[in-house]
Amino acid sequence: MEQSPLFFGKWGDVPIDGDVRPFSIFNPVRSGAGRKNRKHHFISVTYMEGFADDRGRVQVYRAEAPEAPLPKQPRATGYENYYYSQKLPGGGQENHRFEDLWNPIETVWPETVRALQARRLSPALSFNVQGMQTIMRTRVPATRDRIALMLEAKLRSECKVFEEIGKLPPELERYAGQFDTVPVGVNPHETLLAMEDEFKTFGDLCFRLGFEVLHNKTDIPFLTSDNPVCTYDPREPLLARTPYDHSGDIELIFPLTARMLVRGSSKRQPFGVLTRHRDVTDKHKVRRFNRTIAQFAYRMTVGQDRSSDALICAHARLVPTISTEVRRHNNEIQIVWRHIFGPKPDLSQYIDTPEKASRLEAKMALAASSPVSDGC
């Protein structure tokens, strides 16, 4: 018997496909009583298990040391303590809300993968793949850091304007003349709230693309990463590519497992659904997909084996990020940002306690008093 959606309304009214349940039949709102989980994965564990070797381990290539991958269990990587936690107005901390939102999609992922391996197509399969794509595009550090960079640019610009017109708040006057360089830490709560708009934006994009599943028949496994949903203009050469360029032709790739990958295209119809399965037998095509996956990686690339070492190292130096530019015309201020591949940004710590503020002040005072080298 089909169950009615409990949380997602008509958008989630997708029929069950035999043994494949659409994730919308699960209510993601759960009680937090007695729950103390602190290890928040930004790469889904059940997703990462599709890239594990026979011993249940994946090769984790860290961006800062790609030449020395670490074999790890999926549960032991791709997480940060309290990554999705939020401070409560009355004190305390909420640790479960976002983890609960991901849970229905992760629950149905194993049965979704098995059905795709059997080359099935159905609304439930399309719906579940879109769900996993969406959370793996929006929950990850690459997205949250991009939002933080935009908020930082806005705050710096506002402070500089207040300084010019003589209306700096007293607590900021000590930073006068330093607003281009003083550390600016963005409240992580703001980047969590921004995920709602990211969900909607990515959902709109999916309704402009048609999708197919590619089955890897070579001996080179597909890679994945902590930023595995890659979108770009396929007409651009790889080294001249702009990440997330959706102004013309669009291609999306999202590795499902080491043996399967979803490819979306603005040239394939109908939009928004999986329409076919195809085999990939050409190693060069697999390596081309892997180059793109490695190019879009942020903190880490993940592989089933060491067959793509050189390729991963070649793309570890640059990550998808943004550049910002403040433009002023009379009394109007515009912050212009664009997607680029560039060095990984070094974000400042958010200062939310007097102790953190004291440590920052001491660090800045030490830097200001240190002698400047003359380069000799």
UniProtKB/TrEMBL annotation:
Top-level lineage group: Bacteria
InterPro entries: DUF4238 (IPR025332)
Name of the protein this chain belongs to: DUF4238 domain-containing protein
Organism for this UniProt entry: Mesorhizobium wenxiniae
